[in-house]
Amino acid sequence: MRRASKTAGAVFKPKRTSLLSWWKHHGLSAHGSALRIIQAPLGNLMTIMVIAIALALPSGLQVLISNIEGLTGGWQVSSQISVFMRHDIDAEQTDAIAEDLRRRDDVNRVDIITPEQALAEFQAHSGFAEALQTLESNPLPSVITVTPSAQATRDGRVGELQTHLASLNGVDNAQLDRNWLDRLAVIIQLAHRSILVIGTLLLIAVLLIVVNTIRLDIENRRQEIEIAKLIGATNAFVRRPFLYTGLWYGLCGAIIAVILVNIAVALLYGPASTLARLYGSSASPDFLGPVASLGLLLLGSILGLIGSFISVSRHLRAVEPS
Amino acid sequence: MIRFDQVSKRYDGGHQALQTVNLALAAGEMAFLTGHSGAGKTTLLRLIALLERTSQGQVLIDGHNLARVKKRHIPYLRRQIGIIFQDHRLLADRSVFDNVAFPLLISGFSPRDSAGRVRAALDKVGLLHKENALPITLSGGEQQRVGIARAVVAKPAILLADEPTGNLDPALSQEIMDLFVQFNQVGVTVLIASHDLDLISRMGKRMLTLDKGQLVADSARVTQ
Ligand SMILES: Nc1ncnc2c1ncn2[C@@H]1O[C@H](COP(=O)(O)OP(=O)(O)OP(=O)(O)O)[C@@H](O)[C@H]1O
Ligand SMILES: [Mg+2]
């Protein structure tokens, strides 16, 4: 006998199955698992829809936020300029300056806040009412609020106007009120972070959905798996159809997610374009671009694959032929 | 071909299913394994296909010690053994044809290449006309024959059968035994567990008798 005792056991090694037949089984598994999904459409569609929604939510929010960014990026500051008068300027002089400003074509609206009005407002809102009452004189200056015209805003001449106002005789300084824009920027930043957090949680949810669905699938096909192992199927062979099932779930979910996001953008397209025009921006809302769409499909597929891999490696080992 | 050296098997529950069993089956031999219920017949067959591992002693197949077969290589051992189960173990949602083709699919045959072999195996057991039927639409005897076709389709060197005539009528049982004799005649080593003593004795083959896990009789008296 050829060194039989030395190589004992080695005879039961894989005979080199041809690459072609290996590849064919991949094809069969892919096809078979797709058929299985189609054959039980309702339950599988629900799984796929849950995956689709979980993927669509963060990507839809992302699209929304970048659209808002695109929109506001095109906006000129259409806000007010607060012109603080020097203390030695009296009400009459302030009125005269305001009257001059009203005649400018780059100015839409001019309002005067007298020191008395300012003080009253301050007392009403600050909670220092009593402390302020003890003051002998009013420390607040007169303020002229200037709203630039829409044309000046569009042409980007607001900064120019501000410089001009600051240089006027009797003016202490002129402040461009960008507060709300700054706030918007912070909100957008917050939104980005939230999407990151929500997105991560939802991706984990997708993973868990796939893990659980494949677990049930394995449970349902337990008998088949046992038989396959009884007659000499390798773990890889048994695993393959389940991996494809996971892949299909993820991919189909992602395809539907892309469609959902784009439907949502289409629904918002009209109103959003109008809104943009009102703010002097010619931007129109963006759809989920081809690169982002492909990325989402890839992400869905990978999640499906990872989910089924986790499930298969946890649950398939437990199925031993008896 | 098959050798048991001082083999004992103790299940996790502590039950001693086999005790120091020695036996040897030559290549191309056909033998029956008999004994009361619980004697250890199924256990002995399962040890050969590595569905169980021995507690003591060793099982050798074609001179190879099964104790040294790594877990990931077990599938390749099983592909060289055709097993027929008492409860058929057919895939309920696949046709007769697909059931018989399953071992070939597992071994990497493409469907096109395996079709000829599947039909030959089905023809052998007389079920070619039922290739598109689902197993549940078949009688017990027909299902058993599908199981046999599946066991032989990959042309294994060893054929193991656990109570293949379990609840079949005498005529059908005889028919199935004759099938095994035919496979044996083309060189397959056949080991059949059965307690149908009438049938076995009529076959005139070697008979191994287990009693409470011990091999108490061997008509060939090779061991003991
Ligand atoms: N997985 C197991 N765990 C624990 N004990 C087992 C297991 N399988 C079998 N046994 C025990 O081992 C003994 C032998 O069982 P085995 O199935 O080999 O008997 P058998 O000869 O095939 O009987 P039967 O004719 O009823 O099929 C029995 O007493 C049985 O209870
Ligand atoms: Mg038994």
How would you characterize the overall build of this protein?
The complex is a heterodimer of chains A (322) and B (224). By secondary structure, chain A is of the alpha+beta class. Chain A folds into two domains: 25-74 and 183-318, no CATH class; 80-177, 2-Layer Sandwich (Alpha-Beta Plaits). Chain A is 68% helix and 7% strand. Chain A has helices at 19-39, 41-73, 91-102, 115-126, 129-133, 150-155, 158-167, 179-220, 222-230, 235-278, 290-315; strands at residues 81-85, 107-113, 143-148, 171-176. In chain A, strands 2-3-1-4 form a four-stranded antiparallel sheet. In chain A, helix 8 packs parallel to helix 11 (290-315). Chain A is elongated and about 105 Å long. Chain B is α/β, with parallel strands linked by helices and 224 residues long. Chain B has a domain at 89-155. Chain B is 33% helix and 26% strand. Chain B contains seven helices and ten strands. In chain B, the strands form two sheets. A six-stranded mixed sheet of chain B has the order 6-7-8-3-9-10, sandwiched between helices. In chain B, strand 7 (158-162), helix 6 and strand 8 (189-193) form a beta-alpha-beta unit. In chain B, helix 3 (96-106) crosses helix 4, helix 3 packs parallel to helix 5 (140-152) and helix 4 packs across helix 5. The longest helix of chain B is centred in the last third of the chain and has 16 residues, at 170-185. The radius of gyration of chain B is 17 Å and the shape is globular. Chain B starts with a strand and ends in a 6-residue tail after the last strand. The mean pLDDT of chain B is 91. The A-B interface holds A 1, 4-5, 8-15, 17-18, 20-22, 24-25, 28, 223-224, 226-235, 237, 321-322 and B 49, 51, 62-66, 68-70, 72-80, 83, 85, 89-92, 102-103, 105-111, 150. The structure holds adenosine-5'-triphosphate and magnesium ion. Magnesium ion (MG) binds next to helix 1 of chain B. Magnesium ion binds next to helix 1 of chain B.
